[in-house]
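Final report, results section. Input specification for complex C-07:
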Amino acid sequence: MTGLAMTGLATSGLARLAVHSWGVAGSVRGAGIVGRAGWGAPRGGAADVWSLGLANRLVGNIATLAAFESSGGLDVEVVGASVLVAVAGAEADIAVTGGPTVAWGTPTVLPVGARLRILRCRHGARTMVAVRGGLHPGAHCDDGDDVLVAVGPDPGTAVSLMPAVPMPRPERLIVWPGPRLDWFDEAAWRTLCTSAFEVAPASNRVGVRLVGARFQRTVTQELVSEGMVEGAIQVPPSGHPIMMLADHPTTGGYPVIAVVDPSHLGHIAQLSAGDEVRFRAVALWPRGGVDPD
Amino acid sequence: MPRLLPYGPTAVLAEYASVDQVLAVAQRLHTNRLDGVIDGVIDVVPAARTVLVTYGPDVDIGLLHRLLVEPVDVVADPASAHPPRRHTVIEVVYDGCDLEAVAGACSLSVDEVVELHCGAVYTAAFCGFMPGFAYLTGLDPRLTMPRRDVPRPRVPAGSVAIADNFSAVYPAVSPGGWNLLGHTEAVMWDEASATPALLVPGSTVRFVVR
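Structure output:
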């Protein structure tokens, strides 16, 4: 009789992963926690956060959910219900019994009873195995033959799954000063970082049009066309800003007052007509020291 | 002295006194990328007075700024600042709906407009507005005239046009405010090609009557 059977997990309808072996340096890792270094705590979390993110996205999770990190020897069994898994990070020799082959970078459904083993890492040191819904991170206990990952309310028993959650939308989009900020009046930067704008219906893949506060130019000469980036906020003569999207013209003849931080480009692409948009100045920039509140 | 203008964490806009300096700097960047002197540059977008450069985290930002601001030898003919490229001849049917208006505004006959437009060798200074749309310098100054007051909602693909001191060919149907002289069958943008733009900065062009 194994420890697994003794905990009664096999009869549960909830998908779980029972860990038969952690192998070399195996663990469950999310993105870690920053901001505690002064207290002596490093970030922790997955060593390769990019691969954690890729494995998670392959199974439809947000990038930071916890997944297995293995340098070889991880051995897990699917219990309760089938799961969707994906492997990223170091390429590895992967063995599956009781289910389909799992290849690097390919989301695969493993049925109940399937056993997944990360045998050996190749071309890298750490393989990430993400599971649809994410793993509940926590302490694990060494309990006879079967080692079971801790699960939220009942540490030391099993790993369970939670539903995928869409990326939360930031309350304010971070903006950097644009090349022609000095073509606008003194109040423009403060206006940009303190006003509420609304997405206009004429928005498309070229740009998201905003209505709300308007911007006054102090330099009124014609601007000869110049290059624009995705996320550039251009102000045409109407004074209503436009945020450039994926199909924006590569050059434009209206002054660019600000640039949305690249990390927020996905969010501006998801804005719909009627949505409210607010900005905040990037704090890294000396001129950005406008506190919107 | 060129000015470097801020453009967020992944781009910089350099501003110059003339389009010749723009072409020379864009060419210098091109050469240094090809030679592996500078890595991490993603896009170089020359325009009339500026060069926009976007980059990734592996760029040497100090080197990039030096390549943008250090003086360049500007030669009188911007075409010679580029390595030799295939010269392109574009056949044009001069039947544009602004032909007579241009002639009137420039106090020329329609035949003289066509003759002057065909008489010049143009250089693609930069591209923009839409994929494959090259701003061609070298227009005879007698043909200089502003954009239309009210842009057309639909300019046909292949339209050959002028505005200010530039000529251009519309690669695809689009709204547009340039003065239309005629049309060409030339394919300005071929999405399926590895080199989709017929004209890139530095290309030389002549128009001939078809």
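The interface with chain B takes residues 176-180, 224-229, 231-232, 249-251, 256, 259-262, 282, 285 of chain A (CB under 8 Å). The radius of gyration of chain A is 25 Å. This concludes the modelling results for the funded period.
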